[in-house]
Structure formats: structure tokens, C-alpha cells
Amino acid sequence: MSHISRVTLKVRDLDALAEAAEHCDMTLVRGAQTHKWFGRFMGDTAVPMGMDPEDYGKCEHKLALKHPQHGDYEIGLVPAYDGDGYDLAIDTWNQTRLLDAVGGASMPKLKREYAAAVAVANAKKKLGHKGFTVTRTNIGNRIQIALVRR
Amino acid sequence: MQKIIIEIAEDASVSVEGHGFKGPECKQLTAAIEEAIGTVEKVTFKPEYRQAAPAKRVRA
């Protein structure tokens, strides 16, 4: 091997996020300006860096369950605090179905699928013509993308 | 055989690892993919990275 890189995920690619949402039985709604949440800040949780509780519920796009039931909230895409892509805004209070869909409060399933979608698309686009084949394998709750050139 | 493995862990942390490369080619190949996924936080270079890639032979 020649190197190992550790990469922190950034949500920048809406096409990849839409693909990831499908794996979570959700839909990306582009251009949505609001997303469902409790509706009133109770002051019982830390305010994310760069956010104002007055702006909770506002977004540029949103992720919604495909088959929502009364009381289900949605995930808002808000401009990232560092200006690079989007942060995912979620209200987790009493949200069993939403949390099941994305894998928990930190949304690991959604993020895994997003990372996989970005990796596969970019691998095919940027290395496919250099002779690499791209294979995705699910290993439990992990995903492995193998790029092989013989 | 040259292989690049992109490992997405349960917590969605991502690592990219090259196998079978000599020299900096692996890092050059994976850079665009790593940047598309997110921000590269740490890179660990293996001894092979310092080895020269085999020279290409050209038939005249």
C-alpha cells in the first residue's frame, strides 16, 4: 500500500444525497424552504454552531420519509457553518420512524449511503477510464468500495 | 494488481487505502475521490510511497 487517508464527510452533492435517501426510504425535496420539526425551541438542547433558533425549520432542501405519518418530522439541509456544503438539521424528539430510517440521531445510515454514492460515482467518473473496475460490498453496517486494476 | 479500498465504517467515517502502488500515483488517483467525499483530515504514507514507480519501457 502507499497511503491511508482519513476523510471527514461533507454533504455537497445533492444527486448523491438523493440516492442515499432512497436507501433510507426517504425522498430529497429540492428547493424546500421549510422542514417539519417541533416548531418551538424549548431551550433544552445546545444550539448548533452558527445557527439561531429563530431559523430552526428553515432550509434550502429537505429529506422527507416516503410514507410519513402524523407527527413525523423532516430533515432540513441548511448551509454549512463553514460555508462548505450543507449541514443536516434534525429534530429527534419522539421521532421513532425518522430515526429508524436514518440509523439514529447522528444519521449514520444516511451518511454511509451518501459517502458510498459519492465514492462510487466519482470512482467510475474519474478512474473508470484508467482501467479500474468499481465494486460495492455491504459488510454488516459497513460499506466497502473496491477499485481494482489488473 | 492495484487496488484502492474505500472503507465506510458504521459511524460513516471514511478511510481510503491503496494497495500495490509504488510512488505517489495512488495518492494522485484517489485525491479527487477523497475531496468529493469530504475533507481529508489525515494521510499516513507507507514505505512504498517513497519507492520509485517502475520506469516505462518504450520500444523504439
Descriptive notes:
The complex is a heterodimer of chains A (150) and B (60). Chain A has helices at residues 14-23, 96-102, 108-127, and strands spanning 3-9, 26-30, 61-65, 75-79, 86-89, 133-139, 142-149. By secondary structure, chain A is an alpha+beta fold. Chain A has one domain. In chain A, the strands form two sheets. In chain A, strands 2-3-4-5 form a four-stranded antiparallel sheet. Chain A has a two-stranded antiparallel sheet with strand order 6-7. In chain A, a hairpin with a 6-residue loop joins strand 4 (75-79) and strand 5 (86-89). Chain A is elongated, with a radius of gyration of 17 Å. The relative contact order of chain A is 0.17. The mean pLDDT of chain A is 94. Chain B has 60 residues and is of the alpha+beta class. Chain B has one domain. In chain B, 28% of the residues lie in helices and 35% in strands. Chain B is built from two helices and three strands. Chain B has a two-stranded antiparallel sheet. In chain B, a hairpin with a 5-residue loop joins strand 1 (2-8) and strand 2 (14-19). Chain B is elongated. Chain B starts with a strand and ends in a 10-residue tail after the last helix. The chains are: A alpha+beta (150), B alpha+beta (60). Chains A and B meet through strand 1, helix 3 and strand 7 of A and strand 1, strand 2, helix 1 and strand 3 of B. Strand 7 of chain A pairs antiparallel with strand 1 of chain B, so a sheet runs across the interface.
State the order of secondary-structure elements of chain B, H for helix, E for strand: EEHEH
Cα shape of chain A: elongated
By DSSP, the count of extended strands of chain B is: 3
- What's the SSE pattern of chain A? EHEEEEHHEE
Low-confidence runs of chain A: none
Broad structural category of chain B: alpha+beta
Mean pLDDT of chain A: 94
Which stretches of chain B are low in confidence, meaning pLDDT under 50 for 5 or more residues running? Answer: none
Please bin the fraction of helical residues of chain A: 10-25%
Q: What's the pLDDT, averaged over the residues of chain B?
A: 84
Task: Note the beta-strand portion of chain A.
Answer: 25-35%
